[in-house]
Design goal:
Number of domains: 1
Helix content: over 70%
Distance between the termini: 14 Å
Oligomer: single chain
Shape: flat
Largest sheet: none
Radius of gyration: 14 Å
Strand content: under 5%
Length: about 60
């Protein structure tokens, strides 16, 4: 179980690093937009992200 969790975390880091590596200007603009959002908007985006991740996990299992 720990191996799978570690592999999942490693894969998340790889995926998170793709956009700043490939398109740093777009990443910077996206981050700037994110910092201008209200807390509620950021929480909603986080909720949607978590639900999408759970749905993908359910499909993979």
């Amino acid at each position: 179980m720990a191996d799978v969790l570690f592999a999942g975390f490693a894969l998340m880091l790889v995926i998170e690093g793709v956009l700043p590596f490939v398109a740093p200007r777009l990443w910077r603009e996206t981050f700037r937009t994110l910092t201008e959002m209200r807390d509620g908007q950021i929480r909603f985006a986080g909720l949607v992200s978590m639900l999408a991740g759970l749905a993908l996990l359910a499909l993979a299992a």
